[in-house]
Amino acid sequence: MTITSLLPGRLGLGTAPLGSMFRDVSDEEAAATVDAAWDHGIRYYDTAPFYGAGLAEIRLGDALAGRPRDSYVLSTKVGRVILDEVENPAARELGEKGGLFEHGRPNKIVHDWTADATKRSIEDSLRRLRTDRLDIVWVHDVAQDFHGDDWLAVYESARTGAFRVLQQLRDEGVIKAWGLGVNRVEPIELTLELDEPKPDAFLLAGRYTLLDHDRALQRLLPTAADQNVSLVVGGPYSSGILAGGTHFEYQDAPVHIVEKVARIKELAERHGVSIKAAALQFSLTHPTAAAVIPGATRPSRIAEDVAALDEKIPAAFWADLREAGLVSPLAPLPTA
Q1: Residue 258 and residue 260: Cα distance in Å, rounded?
Q2: Under 8 Å CB-to-CB from 146, ≥6 apart: which residues?
């Protein structure tokens, strides 16, 4: 089964914000957001133990409880085991992503991509999600942004541990697909070079957006296309800066990014285009893109995302973006 045939649509819901990523999100708000996604026909939900130290999984499981399990696709991730022991969430060592989920649960997060930890992580996720099975499992964050110069050692631990466990589970039919869920292109490029094990797809967050796509277009996406490996686009709004927020790469956006967004918005306003529509439709146009999974913590955002996919964007907008040098000449455009 290919990831494209597995996924029920091109729009899913990313649940990192439900782990109280940038602010203290209430249980009621989280539940209403998932309900809104369901009511708008969204049937693919992605989560992870890392999101709020299990909080996003718990909230998603509660919101989906009672829904027919065969009617939706569920993915989560391995690489972090959540303990009953507590710690200071604000003091966690997270590389470039310091301070993430400081509003989530205080449970201690152990970073571990070995085979035993992978099996335990899956068992724990099933319990938090209140389900008996997972459809897709991603190997989470084996990249430079969390591990700096040590990332290759972490990757190797995952290659000999999590990769092999997930390949076996897929071959046995326990899960339907597996791959990497990362914020950098290099780990995926390494994985695509392996003879075995072979992933079914990958989740790439923040690296195929209107703001940041050059590196992915150079080698990763052509190789993935050649191997018929699809992409789920995470973070299509670049952590929120493309949707009216102030974050880029999960931190306060730097000046050069704010200025680039302002240039894109100026062109969008000139053509009467919603910047959210431009962001989503750009990310989905590459041939490898199977789905896009923006996150949300307010029900109204779901309606905006659905409308953004259906919005008609004039060809002149894309032409002006290209002429202004705001998109790579290698990037396929929706009306090109």
Answers
A1: 6
A2: 94, 95, 96, 97, 111, 154
Residues identified as active-site? 46, 51, 77
CA–CA separation, 159 vs 142, rounded Å?
10
Q: What single-letter amino acid sits at 187?
A: P
Q: Which DSSP string corresponds to 206-217?
A: SSSSSSS-HHII
Residue among 213, 212, 214, 150 at smallest CA distance from 187: 150
Tokens representing 170 are: 């897929």
The per-residue pLDDT for range 35-92, each reduced to its tens digit, is 999 999 999 999 999 999 999 999 999 999 999 999 999 999 999 999 999 999 988 9
* Whether residue 2 has pLDDT greater than 80: no
CA–CA dist 211, 209 (Å, integer): 5
DSSP code for 253? P
Angle at 159 between CA 91 and CA 231, to 5 degrees: 85
Which helix (H) or strand (E) element contains residue 247?
strand 247-248
Angle at 332 between CA 286 and CA 330, to 5 degrees: 110
Intra-chain end-to-end CA distance of the chain, in Å: 30
Identify whether the C-beta of residue 52 lies closer than 8 Å to the C-beta of residue 102: no
Full-model pTM: 0.96
